[in-house]
Amino acid sequence: MSFRRKPNPNRNHPTFCPYCAGEDLYPNEETDFAWKCHECLRIFDVRFYGQDDPETPPAPAPSTHEALQKSLARFNIGSNFRDPGISPDGPTTTRALNDDTLRRNQALVDKWADTLYDESAENILDWAHEHVSEDLVVTLSMENTVLAELAKDHLPGADLLFLDTGYHFAETLEVADKVEARYPDQKLVRALPVLSRAEQDATYGPNLYLSNPTACCRMRKVEPLAVQLSDYAGWVTGLRRDDGPTRANAPALSLDDTGRLKISPLVTWTLEDTDRYIAEHDLIIHPLTQQGYPSIGCETCTLPVAEGEDPRAGRWAGQNKTECGLHS
């Protein structure tokens, strides 16, 4: 298996921890690029912190004060940038549903959630088409296009929604273009964040995905989704229970925090089921899935993983983070 990024045998020893500025660092066995700080016990990927330039000889370890100043400067702490806990000016929330729709959604979940819990994807979408098809949108990450194909056959006419974060791999954007061409009867809605990358850097400081990845995901994924969901009474997701422990008990039918239906027809699928469906239906292939990327998010926060490793191990590698917030 060939990875886009090759391990670098000549990597430098990082000079400080990007989290606590500690200097007591040692290689971590999880990946070729992982280092662990003995002081705060956090693991970080050296490629994400600008400390892995093979052309530059290792720098002597700075004093604790110097390391702290470097860490603060790197992450813009103490600067005049806006607190990332404060959302950008502009639309960031979902309009409330009317009372009739809220009551209908609650009644549907109360009646059908247990019945649909382990149903097939096709049956779940057939149920959705019968009960609420005119009010639904199908979300796509473009990692694969299984939901688009299923929607074509079982939820015809439903809109498709893609969160264009501004940080995607070029290959992901190419898949989105191919989806738009292959499914002309399904309108593809491209949701954009309030701020462009340059505007976000100017407002919150450069590389928010490093200094506060949770805030970056909120501004570029969670809030754009919230705004787009205003036009719908429910959404279809690609959530799978085998994605990880935080999703192990995910229901096929539930309500989100706004009272909208959240329908996850693939909850019982495994990665092997997904691959089989893609092959049987000759679906659009995201090229990076064949280059060591079984789970694909933004380019800045996604790394390839070794064969046999957790498929999501490359997401926010080295960070204390496993979810973007869309499903938490």
Automatic annotation (TrEMBL):
GO terms for biological process: cysteine biosynthetic process; hydrogen sulfide biosynthetic process; sulfate assimilation, phosphoadenylyl sulfate reduction by phosphoadenylyl-sulfate reductase (thioredoxin). [4Fe-4S] cluster binds at residues 216-217, 298, 301. Its cofactor is [4Fe-4S] cluster. One of its GO terms (molecular function) is phosphoadenylyl-sulfate reductase (thioredoxin) activity. Residues 137-304 form the Phosphoadenosine phosphosulphate reductase domain. GO terms for cellular component: cytoplasm. It is found in: Cytoplasm. Its EC number is 1.8.4.10. Its main location: cytoplasm. The keyword Transmembrane does not apply. Binds 1 [4Fe-4S] cluster per subunit. Catalyzes the formation of sulfite from adenosine 5'-phosphosulfate (APS) using thioredoxin as an electron donor. This is Adenosine 5'-phosphosulfate reductase. It comes from Corynebacterium pilosum. The gene is cysH.
